[in-house]
Design brief:
Blueprint lengths: L6 E3 L8 H16 L7 E4 L1 H11 L2 H8 L7 H17 L4 H15 L8 E7 L15 E5 L2 H13 L4 H9 L9 E7 L3 E8 L10 E8 L3 H4 L6 E6 L5 E5 L5 E6 L4 E6 L2 H4 L6 H18 L3 E8 L8 E8 L29
Helix pairs in contact: 4-6
Length: 353
């Protein structure tokens, strides 16, 4: 199956455009084109969302509901959000659109010896911009099996464009709803042995001569949402020497349960909790990947990564996301000495996106 107006494969050879793929989708296509180790997948483009909304006839109604909405009135925001999301989830998707999505899913599955679980991830057109961070405002669904679950959760991602949190953020930052659209990423799920985030600077002061890595066991959702205290390591960006590190508690991990067909939370034993979740070689590989993303995008990056337990060492480090760092990157570089010990989280807690 080839990429088309409604479906764009990561490796489909079509130029990634924010207005078609959203921030996350455009990033994944760009990284794939650059030869970075991205798990394969496709994007349900904004054209499909726009066509669905047009055919359903609810766009004007949404604008009316959002007009003059007070972001400080949480009760009313929640009411409006629930009404919009129910409207989106209750309307039928035109058959021709659905068939294209089913075809893309089957084409992705054909790349593997047997069907694999996927992640379905929202990718709004206004997310991951250099001057704004939308991380965690829309939905992500992990470890989904089968086309029925995938198509249902694509619809849920569309609806999540109008969560209360997303509505309030846009209102408070004067981001108009007109022209806003949603793409959805469907991507092979990583069987993460270790995962985490990395930022190509010291997040406490913006020092761009450093790389900061947070890592823990299992799927990275527990790291980026702040549910576990990860290992935190700072390295020199040039030499990759460890400047300091703090071993986090890492008390739990999200791992797949094959029988249940979903991710489950499991306690981490004392021995693994007491040692760093990354080896020296793995730590250096994550840092090198972060540097490569920064070089490609020409600005400090905030990346999500994972070590896939199904792949051999040396081939198992995968890049799941790379977005511009938004707190310090617009400011001049601030060289400084390394912080003198003490724990800090490399990135503020957020949901996996």
């Amino acid at each position: 199956m080839q990429s088309n107006e409604y479906i764009q494969f990561f490796d489909g050879g079509i130029e990634p455009k924010l207005e078609n793929l959203g921030g996350k989708g455009a990033s994944l296509v760009t990284m794939t084109s650059a030869g970075m180790p991205v798990p394969p997948g496709f994007v349900v483009t904004t054209a499909q969302f726009d066509a669905f909304m047009e055919e359903a006839g609810i766009t004007r109604h949404i604008h009316q509901l959002l007009a003059d909405l007070d972001p400080g009135d949480m009760g009313q925001v929640d009411k409006v959000s629930a009404a919009i999301r129910e409207d989106i989830c209750s309307r039928p998707v035109p058959q021709a659109m659905r068939e294209l999505t089913v075809g893309a899913y089957n084409a992705l599955m054909s790349r593997f010896e047997e069907p694999v679980p996927v992640a379905v991830r929202s990718s709004a057109t206004a997310e991951d911009l250099p001057d704004a961070s939308f991380a965690g405002q829309q939905d992500t669904y992990l470890w989904l099996d089968g086309v029925k679950a995938v198509t249902e959760h694509i619809r849920q991602c569309w609806a999540s464009l109008f969560t209360s949190r997303a509505i309030i953020y846009r209102l408070r930052n004067n981001i108009p709803n007109e022209g806003l659209s949603m793409a959805v990423v469907v991507q092979k799920m990583v069987n993460a042995r270790v995962s985490g985030v990395a930022i190509t600077m010291d997040p406490t002061n913006g020092d761009r001569s450093k790389i900061t890595i947070d890592s823990s066991y299992g799927v990275g959702e527990m790291v980026v949402s702040g549910q576990v205290t990860p290992d935190n390591i700072m390295l020199d960006k040039v030499t990759l020497a460890v400047i300091f590190e703090h071993l986090g508690d890492k008390h739990a991990e999200l791992v797949p349960d094959a029988a249940a067909g979903r991710l489950v939370e499991r306690e981490v034993d004392a021995e693994r909790r007491g040692r760093r979740s990354l080896s020296d070689d793995e730590l250096a590989a994550v840092a090198q990947m972060a540097k490569r993303a920064e070089k490609h995008y020409k600005c400090p990056q905030d990346i999500e990564w994972a070590l896939d337990g199904d792949l051999p060492d040396g081939e198992n480090l995968l890049l799941l996301q790379s977005r511009p760092e938004t707190v310090h990157s617009s400011k001049p570089s601030v060289p400084s000495a390394a912080a003198a010990g003490g724990y800090f989280s490399g990135l503020s807690p957020r949901q996996l996106t």
